[in-house]
């Protein structure tokens, strides 16, 4: 399952961050009635919003010198710089460059967050394992990169 | 502390409900710059949103016939009919009648929810004790009616 | 509000314990149809059950010698000996002496737990402040002793 | 690991639902003493119960038209119709058709829920990935279908 | 109960912050054996530690201009500057000025945090209502200032 | 993915336990300045600590006689005897035999816990699937044994 060659032991480490954002689920090429029919109250033209909880899991070998896979302070900075700062207290449909021209579903947002973080995680020599994104306490999405 | 006359024992019972809404903190009579200065990123003109958690506490005597203070199914219906259905997946600034002409702060929202629920709770012969409203896991407001 | 005379500072301390129990809400002097009408699915004659979470709050002065109000290990033992061991994995309607002849509502259970614990807490020189009992994550009852 | 052919990206989406039920762990072909010895207090003949939390995870490609894997409103309806409505406020040993002649362990319940949901999920063109079932906050079972 | 004169409506607002610290419960004027007898494993001379969760509740009138009781960003800064920065990743017995010469119990820590925060909250024109301090998920202390 | 031969259905079962411990992240062969530079406030020579939450997942076939994969009471005993009792209210750097000469990172602790538990789980005929260890609510590590 893992294509990386490990001489040591594979560990997974996860960091949780949060953000609050507005969105709506509606296609601009559909009528309001069609959007309402497909997306229900999530299509409200005046927006609604969520407290999203984001869990980023990276994996790789433990560095024997530090006992760390990656420095969590670094991981926190990366997630905030490339994701949270761009979407916290924002409108996902109108203001987020990496969601441009995409439906603002939790599924699409999780995939977009993966694409934003991947190069920065890999540059550090770790593997991005998964993005887990809670829209509410009762719904979450996971993406493993393919 | 309680002004009601109780012949039995006073009990408090709490029901939790949730809703998701968009809002912004901004006064229409202030410039964008002034709103930004006072409210920070909460003033974003394109809105942001939250998963609000609402705890409604009522108090009174236990009915010896049922062992209930009030029927929780009834309390759930009242909270949903008079509050949640009016604000879930809505824009607190634009679409909620009982927030009209008010700043959409958690404080004002908790007070407005109290005012909405009070007559319906009292009609049932119970006392409304408190509204506790979480905006995020780290912030909440409580209102006791005066 | 507090009738005790304190020479030091009043502190509240809370211990959480849990138990799992079966119950039904039904009066033996009512017909099944009447019970069903009043209590809905909670009246199911074949029982249902819950993971109850119990929060016991005691209050009083901090003992300057130990920095404790009461020893939490002692409080844990008291709650388990006089409450949890009698109701965990039990049927609240059939097997719990202090619920005999009472409707097995959360309200009545909280009051009965207060009555069970009060003498043991007072014997230790502390005040029992409240019993908070969660039936589910969305419903809880609080009792302050009068 | 996945036997489905995906032209797009695989996403996992999870919906949480809850139910309260009574049960006991006891084999009818064993004596009470034997049941007590093997299952301990879980064998109490008068039943006990739990608030179960159920997480259903489905996987598949995101529909480019809606940004959804599946409509969560639909998933919620399916889980409630085929599982929750049949076991909520019920006795797992006596009243649930799909638990008939099975020991009412969390393991067996998770497998039975998988079997109930599988045809309805597949009919919608999605894959059922896992059933995760919490009996208490400290114990849970996961089943991946084989 | 409230000695303040309010022309408007009283609201309570709570901010949660967290910190991790080491401590032990042991009196320097007692022998190890005596400390072990009274404090049990909490007296371990080599220390143990906790993730503490701190809830600070302030109360007062809502400012009609902002819809705020106090600015939560300000409250967060105050709590971090005067409390969290002084105790996070620290040893409560050895390194925290406001715990000097005190037993490092949760009770004493909650009272000391009250004393640290009170002047800064009052300077802002709000009232400090309570300090709620979780040592673990199962134990917490509340202090109301007298 | 699973190398075991199963005639029945594979189930995963997880038990959560908790412990409180002190630690620091610092190499004895580095200067304080170097440790401070690499590990930040986690290198505090006077220690800090955490409430760790430990999730142990075992997998295997359900025993048709009991409906159990393993008896959770047994799993609880094993985890407490071989892990929790050795590290609860302890100093991970100074007092835990299986952490001797290792950096007390969450990664290393999770791997060491795996090594401690593996023989006892296998002796029971089950497979150890994963160790999931929360250091705080925002950080956790998972180890799958290779």
Could you list some keywords that capture this structure?
homohexamer; 146 residues; alpha+beta; Tetrahydropterin Synthase, Chain A; 5-stranded mixed sheet; 3 helices; 5 strands; 29% helix; elongated; disordered N terminus
What would your notes on this structure say?
Six copies of one chain form a homohexamer. Chain A has 146 residues and is an alpha+beta fold. Chain A has a single domain, classed as Tetrahydropterin Synthase, Chain A (2-Layer Sandwich). Chain A has three helices and five strands, in the order βαβαβαββ. Chain A has helices spanning 32-39, 72-87, 106-123; strands at residues 10-23, 48-61, 90-91, 127-136, 139-143. Chain A has a five-stranded mixed beta sheet with strand order 3-1-2-4-5. At the E-F interface, strand 1, strand 2 and strand 3 of E face strand 1, strand 2 and strand 3 of F.
List the helices and strands and how they pair.
Six copies of one chain form a homohexamer.
Chain A: E1 10-23, H1 32-39, E2 48-61, H2 72-87, E3 90-91, H3 106-123, E4 127-136, E5 139-143
Parallel strand pairs in A: 1-3
Antiparallel strand pairs in A: 1-2, 2-4, 4-5
Helix pairs in contact in A: 2-3
């Amino acid at each position: 399952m893992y294509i990386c060659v490990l001489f040591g032991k594979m560990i997974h480490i996860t960091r949780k961050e949060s953000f609050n954002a507005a969105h709506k689920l509606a296609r601009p090429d559909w009528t309001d009635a069609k959007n309402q029919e497909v997306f229900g109250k999530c299509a409200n033209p005046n927006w609604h919003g969520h407290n999203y909880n984001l869990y980023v899991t990276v994996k790789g070998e433990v560095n024997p010198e530090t006992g760390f896979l990656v420095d969590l302070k670094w991981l926190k900075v990366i997630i905030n710089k490339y994701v949270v700062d761009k979407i916290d207290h924002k409108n996902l449909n109108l203001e987020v460059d990496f969601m441009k021209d995409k439906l603002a579903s939790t599924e699409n947002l999780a995939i977009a967050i993966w694409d934003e973080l991947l190069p920065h995680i890999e540059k550090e020599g770790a593997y991005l394992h998964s993005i887990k994104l809670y829209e509410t306490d009762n719904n979450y999405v996971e993406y493993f990169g393919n």
